[in-house]
Backbone:
């Protein structure tokens, strides 16, 4: 399979059409896959309530970190409630293991964190793509690993106690599972027969698309981490995460380019939203409600307009990161730059094509 299309007399016209299509994707919404308000409400509650409760008890220093437990609720949106009640704990366990790996690596030093980042990215991609898990892919495994290493770094003056952090994360992940199980109070949901997880997530590691995505993820992780080591190792997970987000769950070069453009523009706008929020002295309870509102909107629009979703995703993640003692304006600028680098790597990795296993 060639990496680039064969040159033809129609190539200039074709590229103009492709560019026009990418431009139009920024101004229109994709088709709706069906109602998503219930998924948005679950994710919003799982994110906001732990923050609100901890802040109300005066534990604002760790309250925002508890919001990461909601990441597990973002997976398996196409499943029935009885299927999600089995699947979400699996995702939560994987995310907690990634977080624990980040905590351990932080103690060993920056090189260990960098090596662990590559290992987590590759392992998560093999697991997610190899078992047809679907969106949001391996992104949150990488983010929660990097965030955990960052907030528990013993060299930082704002380091969170590792045991406390992992305990809060475990509790928030468990709460997220309870939220996804809440619909089972209705008899109609309890009466639905769940399908076997093996049929819902078939093995696909031998397929060309899966192997291509895994190799692209590995390339983005290695190059992104090495690039960050030359500047600031703590920024590696954001660069790698941005690159992986561009890859998505499709091996199409056109999709990678479109997602890259959407991510760059959406992140820049989202960083501006974060700056506007960060200058307002909001208490932990109010911030929890803001995070919940952001997460609710994200779940409604992410499947229809990626750039618009990132306008809300970026300030949400930056608010959580700011809880670790990072600054306001400088944090937004750094993350915008890191996103551009990651997006570039993600788009460049689209030249990698791997054939199916023989």
Residues:
């Amino acid at each position: 399979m060639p990496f680039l299309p064969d040159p033809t007399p129609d190539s200039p016209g074709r590229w103009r059409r492709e560019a026009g299509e990418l431009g139009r994707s920024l101004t229109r919404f994709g088709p709706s896959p069906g109602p998503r308000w219930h998924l948005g409400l679950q994710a919003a509650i799982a994110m906001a309530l732990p923050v609100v409760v901890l802040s109300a008890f005066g534990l604002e220093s760790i309250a925002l970190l508890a919001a990461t437990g909601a990441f597990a609720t973002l997976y398996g949106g196409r499943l029935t409630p009885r299927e999600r009640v089995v699947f979400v704990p699996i995702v939560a366990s994987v995310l907690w293991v990634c977080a624990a790996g980040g905590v351990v690596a932080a103690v060993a030093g920056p090189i260990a964190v960098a090596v662990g980042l590559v290992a987590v990215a590759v392992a998560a991609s093999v697991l997610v793509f190899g078992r047809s898990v679907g969106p949001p892919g391996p992104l949150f495994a990488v983010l929660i690993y990097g965030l955990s290493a960052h907030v528990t770094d013993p060299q930082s003056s704002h380091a969170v106690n590792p045991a406390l952090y992992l305990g809060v994360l475990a509790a928030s992940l468990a709460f997220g599972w309870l939220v996804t199980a809440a619909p089972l109070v209705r008899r109609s949901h309890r009466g639905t027969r769940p399908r076997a997880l093996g049929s819902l997530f078939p093995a696909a590691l031998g397929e060309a698309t899966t192997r291509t995505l895994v190799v692209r993820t590995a390339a983005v992780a290695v190059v992104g981490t090495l690039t960050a080591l030359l500047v600031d190792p703590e920024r590696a997970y954001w660069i790698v995460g941005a690159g992986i987000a561009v890859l998505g769950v499709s091996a199409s070069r056109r999709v990678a380019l479109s997602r890259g453009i959407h991510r760059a523009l959406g992140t820049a706008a989202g960083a501006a939203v974060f700056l506007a929020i960060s200058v307002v002295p909001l208490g932990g309870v109010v911030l929890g409600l803001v995070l919940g509102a952001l997460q609710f909107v994200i779940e409604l629009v992410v499947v229809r307009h990626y750039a618009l979703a990132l306008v809300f995703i970026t300030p949400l993640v930056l608010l959580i990161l700011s809880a670790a003692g990072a600054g306001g304006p400088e944090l937004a600028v750094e993350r915008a730059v890191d996103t551009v680098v990651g997006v570039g790597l993600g788009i460049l990795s689209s030249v990698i094509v791997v054939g199916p296993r023989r």
Summary: The chain has one domain: 35-186+200-351. Residues 81-108 form the longest helix (28 residues). The chain is about 70% helix and 0% strand. Residues 35-186+200-351 form one domain.
